[in-house]
Write a structure and sequence with these properties.
The chain is α/β, with parallel strands linked by helices. It has 2 domains: 38-162 and 303-379, Rossmann fold; 164-298 and 389-402, Rossmann fold, CATH 3.40.50.2300. 44% of the residues lie in helices and 17% in strands. It is built from 13 helices and 15 strands. The strands form 4 sheets. Strands 2-1-3-4-5-13 form a 6-stranded parallel beta sheet. The chain has a 4-stranded parallel beta sheet with strand order 7-6-8-9, sandwiched between helices. Helix 2 packs parallel to helix 12, helix 9 runs parallel beside helix 10 (281-287) and helix 12 (324-343) crosses helix 13 (349-357).
Length: 418
């Protein structure tokens, strides 16, 4: 009996020692978890044809992370930026980079401006249940998500729908004509697009809107989505037809600069619309102030007193003014940090995603107030949301000409129209 009691006592002591060791191990794990950084995956075009705006994205997200870390991080955890260069945004490169960020780098959330025009990365985010906040290529998201909103629940696009890209500029041309500010010599239209979903969506949409308004498409060209310089045959058609309006929607900065510089050598009496590229540093650097009069628009913009506050601190940090994507990705990162904190556990991807999917979720950024449409997972546009703005270039400045509530100056005829 005594031997049995000794054995029982020894067993109890062993169990207690084991439990104590277990508690000690738990404390050590807790300490390790407390020191853990939150890894922010950043798949972006940091080299190649889109590196100009990729650089602006990198500066925006870096500034946001620096500010968050200086303020103590998120729930006591510092943020760590893990970059993935998607180079020229080719689908295979984007897929490889995103897989590496998820499976090898073990990021906790993914944040970027853009990665691929067709959003090939969305299925990977769903497969790995990775919360993903981006800021562009809404046309692809609308196409994919609206068909099956329940399939794409981990993607949250902070840009509004691109539907207005298809209608806004034609409507502005019509209004300018009604107000006597622009008298088109004819109802001819030239359209130059590139072979990618974003460019085609915008170009074909504007083309269709103009046709419905009675305009005739006399030049309709599609160039490769890569470095392209052979614009003379296209410009020869334009100079022959002399259209009153020219639309160019390839959003590669060097291509747009080459096209427009060549156009200016012998310009027609045409309004010229360039999709997005006047906002890119590379375009402005190449044009060197010769882009005066060009019209472009954006589904989101840095406007107002709050935006001025961001511009000032961006310039203080980087020594130059931000372009839209610097502000876009700054806001996207701050929105991500807000969701990480509200989840209560920044390493619980499902909890973070539930915050972003909640019907009442909103975040007040420098661009505007972010609320997500449950049918598309796009930001809601318009009053109380993200403003859609049209610009005209003057004096190397982006001058707002529409909407009237935000306009800085009125439209003026470009210098090549006499």
């Amino acid at each position: 009996m005594m031997r049995f009691r000794k054995t029982a006592v020894l067993l109890v002591v062993f169990i207690l020692l084991f439990a104590a060791a277990g508690c000690g191990g738990g404390s050590e794990n807790a300490q390790t978890d407390a020191d853990r950084t939150i890894k922010i995956g950043f798949p972006a075009p940091l080299s190649g044809s889109s590196a100009g705006w990729g650089s602006d994205m990198e500066r925006g997200i870096t500034l946001a992370i620096e500010e968050i870390n200086e303020a103590g991080g998120v729930l006591g955890h510092k943020l760590e930026l893990v970059k993935g260069d998607v180079e020229g945004q080719e689908p295979s490169t984007v897929t490889t980079v995103v897989k590496r960020l998820i499976t090898k780098d073990k990021v906790d959330i993914m944040v970027t401006g853009v990665a691929n025009p067709s959003l090939v990365e969305l299925d990977l985010m769903e497969q790995y249940k990775m919360p993903y906040i981006l800021y562009g290529y809404a046309q692809a998201q609308e196409r994919l998500v609206s068909q099956n909103p329940e399939k794409y629940t981990y993607t949250h696009n902070a840009i509004p729908s691109y539907q207005r890209y298809r209608t806004e500029f034609p409507e502005i041309v019509s209004k300018l004509e009604e107000e006597g500010k622009f008298t088109p010599a004819n109802n001819k239209l030239a359209v130059v697009k590139s072979q990618n979903e974003y460019s085609l969506y915008c170009g074909e949409g504007m083309q269709e809107t103009f046709k419905n308004m009675g305009w005739e498409v006399v030049v309709d060209e599609t160039i490769p989505y890569e470095r392209f310089t052979e614009f003379e045959p296209i410009l020869a058609q334009i100079r022959k037809e002399k259209p009153a309006v020219i639309i160019y929607t390839d959003h590669t900065a060097a291509n747009a600069a080459t096209f427009f510089s060549s156009f200016l050598q012998d310009p027609t009496q045409s309004l010229v619309f360039l999709q997005a590229t006047p906002s890119y540093p590379e375009f402005r650097e190449i044009m060197n102030g010769k882009q005066d009069g060009v019209i472009w628009n954006y589904a989101a913009s840095l406007l107002g007193d709050k935006a001025d506050e961001f511009k000032a601190k961006y310039e203080a940090r980087w020594g130059e003014k931000p372009n839209p994507y610097g502000g876009f990705v700054y806001d996207a990162m701050m929105l991500a940090a807000d969701a990480l904190e509200k989840s209560g556990d920044p390493f619980n991807k499902e909890a973070v995603n539930e915050v972003l999917n909640s019907a009442d979720y909103s975040y007040e950024g420098y661009i505007g107030t972010y609320k997500f449409d449950p049918d598309t997972r796009l930001a809601i546009s318009g009053e109380g949301g993200i403003p859609f703005v049209t610009y005209q270039e003057w004096g190397d400045e982006h001058v707002v000409i529409a909407p009237e509530s935000l306009a800085q100056k009125e439209f003026k005829l470009p210098p090549w129209i006499k």
